[in-house]
Amino acid sequence: MEFVADEDYYEVLGVSPEADDAEIRKAYKKLAVKLHPDRFVDKPSAEREDAQHKFAKVSEAYNVLKDTEKRNEYDFMRRMGVSSPDPEPEAPTISPEEAAKRREMAEKRFRHGIALQ
Which pLDDT belongs to residue 18? Predict the structure, then answer.
């Protein structure tokens, strides 16, 4: 699971790290009602986008803190001073020609291995 860097989910919801599930749910509901995008339909686009951004942060924080397993992992990462686990390294991209050569070599090795058996 990845967490947004420099985001303190407890701070986003306005609760302490010792808050129980009921406090977290109550804080989320209060903020969700206040920041829900439907309330900003007739507002200027900058204000509407700001509210959508804040609502997304609040929703993300709540989705992590309401789940015991995610919350425990988040708390651990927070205590360790790590904002997010290292993402999986991307697979190197290779050209179609290189991919074809590798497939051909793998096929030859496979056939050779079968012959040895």
Answer: 93
